[in-house]
Specification:
heterodimer; A: 8-stranded parallel barrel; 8 strands; B: alpha/beta; 4-stranded parallel beta sheet; 3-stranded antiparallel beta sheet; 7 strands; elongated
Amino acid sequence: MKTDSRLEKVLATGELAVTSECGPPRGCRPEKVKEKAALLKDHVDGVNVTDNQTAMVRMSSVTAGILIKQMGLDPIIQMVSRDRNRLAMQSEILGAYSFGIDTMLCLSGDHAKFGDHPMAQGVFDIDSIQMVKMVRQMRDDGLFQGGAKIDGPPKMFIGAAANPFADPFELRVMRLAKKVKAGVDFIQTQCIFNLDKFEEWMKGVVDRGLDEQVHILAGITPMKSVGMARYMKNKVPGMDIPDSVIKRLEGVPKEQQPEEGIKMAVEAIERLKQVKGVHGFHIMAIEWEEKVPQIVEQAGLYPRPKV
Amino acid sequence: MITAEQKPIQEIIGYIAPYRRILLAGCNECVTVCAAGGRKEVGLLASALHLNHLKQGKNIDIREITLERQCDPEYVEELAPYIDGVDAVVSMACGCGVQSIAARYKKTPVFPAVNTRFMGASLSQGVWSERCKGCGDCVLGITGGICPVARCSKHLFNGPCGGTSNGQCEVSPDIDCAWRLIWERLKELGLESRYEELMEAKDWRPGGAGGPGTIIREDLA
């Protein structure tokens, strides 16, 4: 074991891991973090805590992560290169690990254009792959990015994202290979709606033997309505929503669409369980955390392994 | 070259409101090429200011001059014969030119008439696009001649982010994804394998993080 991360331990058992996420509030209301996290308790192996997602200011991911940790859950703090330079990232990591947070996800982050501070200067001192390498060096070599020794290095289980649906498609396996080379331990993918394309990407991943070097958690998002599906198709960058998804949701009355969305998510999990190299699921129920336990249970992923 | 665009006329009028005698200085270099502050634009701006003051019933005296280069003390010196006869200078050069004038003529206020935008190249008549951030440590030799610092909205060094859509940047469908361009170029050159080489975290010092840059050429100085 490289770390004390629960996610690492679960993955080491060979069982399918389950993670979900919790978006911190846009204000100083710690109870909101706790309410959301409590919905996920016992049903997941880790809770991603997003970092100013879609470039909107929120409670910091490390702070919300500490609140979640104190509840006895396992936060996976997300960190974007948009908002911090390498000094700020490393100091946050030291702080997070001091509170027992041992799992994180390294991301570039949505451009500030999408958020409520489009006039902000993006930092982008290092990119997500360089961040992975930095965190690995902090853990394995006990060195800061600048080369100085760390007095008590943080032992982070290191994640990154992959979007098999962004183009150029032919680059997407190579980009994963680069993250593996940088030292990533696990990957959480973009929400998967185009399962055929995902499977094609996974075949490329397996052909290169990358599935032996990194754990891939397939991203699952239940659709609440056909409106949400249309919005994601048209407005969210890097999202691939096939027309069949929209047609299926259109085919049921509005009040039954949430149920249908959950059914589709469970079906996707069942299908992706069979895909070589998929080692778990990352369930992103956007502002719908209360449905995560149901999805986990219906997909046969409950109870979670005790590690 | 350095590209610029003329400021809104009202902003320029605001700057010069307290003054009557204006020296309007263009530059014959980059801002001439990008049609923001050359001889022609000096003439047009002078006419616009005259017209505005006429409408307001005010009197303004504008002397027009276009220097070979406003960023060069040798040419900035050419303003010396006129400077005592004016209340303010309006420079149509880039920020380098404005500052050269301010440094040389300490008692005369100087105002910019253009917004300096970026180092760019001309794509077609009337179209300029950013190409260089002056990062001080050029990576074009390993990125197929396409700059990820200037042309990727997140200046990523190791490939496209997850927001690329139809080959375009998530920031705007009008912006090409720099990494799509780099990848296509590497393929054309048969250098695909280069993509998988990790690019290390950049040292930003030569590009400005180390403080304002200075070049001293001992052989010329």
